[in-house]
What we know:
Elements lengths: L1 E2 L2 E3 L2 E3 L6 E5 L7 E6 L3 H19 L3 H17 L1 H12 L3 H21 L7 E3 L5 E9 L2 E5 L7 H12 L3 E5 L5 H13 L7 E3 L4 H10 L5 E5 L2 H14 L2 E5 L4 E5 L5 H13 L9 E7 H16 L19 H16 L3 E4 L18 E4 L6 H4 L6 E7 L2 H9 L3 E2 L1 E5 L3 H10 L4 E4 L15 E2 L2 E2 L7 H5 L1 E9 L11
Parallel strand pairs: 1-5, 8-9, 8-11, 9-10, 11-12, 13-14, 13-19, 14-17, 16-17, 19-20
Antiparallel strand pairs: 2-3, 4-5, 6-7, 7-23, 12-22, 15-16, 18-21
Helix pairs in contact: 1-7, 2-4, 2-6, 3-4, 3-6, 4-5, 7-8, 9-10
The structure holds 2-aminohexanedioic acid.
Amino acid sequence: MRTLKNFIGGAWRESANPTRVSDLNPADVSDVVAEAPASTAAEAAEACDAAARAFEGWRNTPAPVRGQILFRVQRRMEERRQELAEALTREEGKTIAESRGEIQRAINVVEFFAGEARRITGETIPSELPNNFCYTVKQPMGPVGIITPWNFPVAIPIWKMAPALVSGNTVVFKPATLTPLTATLLVEIFDESGVPPGVVNLVYGGGREVGDTIVRHPAIQGVSFTGSNDVGTGLYSAAAARGIKCQCEMGGKNPIVILADADLDLAVESTVQGAFGSTGQRCTATSRAVVVESIANEFVERLEARTASLVVGNGLNPGTHVGPSVDERQLETVLGYVEAGKHEGACLVRGGDRVRDEGRDRGYFVSPAIFDRVDEHMRIAQEEIFGPVLSVIRVPDNARALSVANGVRFGLSASVYTTDVASMFRFVDRLDAGIIHVNSPTVGGEAHIPFGGMKATGVGLREMGRVAIDFYTELKVVYVDYTGGVRKTNLY
Ligand code: UN1
């Protein structure tokens, strides 16, 4: 069991608050992975002050040098990948294969942004006037707040911090209280790689003390958040009140649309991967299968058989396909939605029970649940569950499939399964989602490709890809007049 500390101004520091938050392994709660501080608002403010003091030095470090430091971060992550993956599985619960995949993704993100350090370019723009030269330059914003969730506790902090740092900003990082250990490992790696003191600061604690202090602190110039809609909209309001940049990536209720001409084996496999991979605990999870009636019976039959073969258990066992819910509250939420689905009259095809045998009562395990004949207005078809629960919604034709797919408040990702080119383009054009997959699952994303959603899912610029640099920089426009005369702007 590790006792974790805050990292402020380049030093590991105890919190003044003696209360410690236990980091429990959700596969076996007798395994206490770590203890983290419940920091005070004053400590969060100290971290913001430290980030403010470090800003001048970091912004004056040439961007390619900042990139070289990130390449060292990449190498350290590669060296420590096994330790990172095991810590991730122990504190979050996902399978070790999923953890390795998450670490690799984070490494790819660091590699991409380290290279981008040499390409933080502006543009030159011809002026209306002779002997005038106009150009743009991207400059760092200042200290930024990075507030991250427990479900991707390595990849998400990295995909926020890497572009923030190469852009020349300093960081105050508040990880989720459920996954503190991986946050310490990441910050150790930044420190070992030569990130100067105060450039990355880590503060553990709750949203009220730490998150609110960060977004309201006068030094903080931008906030990037991934998590629930409740918290995100609150942060967005607080950022708006101060007039600072804010980026929030929130909920999803992602559909997989399966048309009559789809390759059914492919569609079934992808539905299982999207709905039950990472125990359904991802904002891109497939939570609705919108299936054209003519193939629905066969789809559900094959889906049930395939789901029955999934092994639910401790993610450290290599044979496990589905790990536990992250904590008791999440487990209760999932079981509550299963009850709501039954109560509203959906047909539970399989799963949805707490799994307790073979020692699994020490963890928060639920068998993957499939509901068939779900009405699009039911709660299980509208609300984000964040667990292994899939709703199959049958529709008569493609037009209804589209309106059902779009009939939720969220718009993160959507998949369409079809072999018809015209149908494919029609769905790509009309689905309300920030990320569309054609014949591939709703989940995942690549380091150099933008990520994010529309409608209630997100506000602010997309993450990852080159556009991430736009979020973390201010665009400055420069007019240079070399006529030597007085310019009469806007006078005719
Ligand atoms: C993925 O689909 O692999 O919180 C990433 C989430 C998303 C990340 C999902 N921001 O689940």
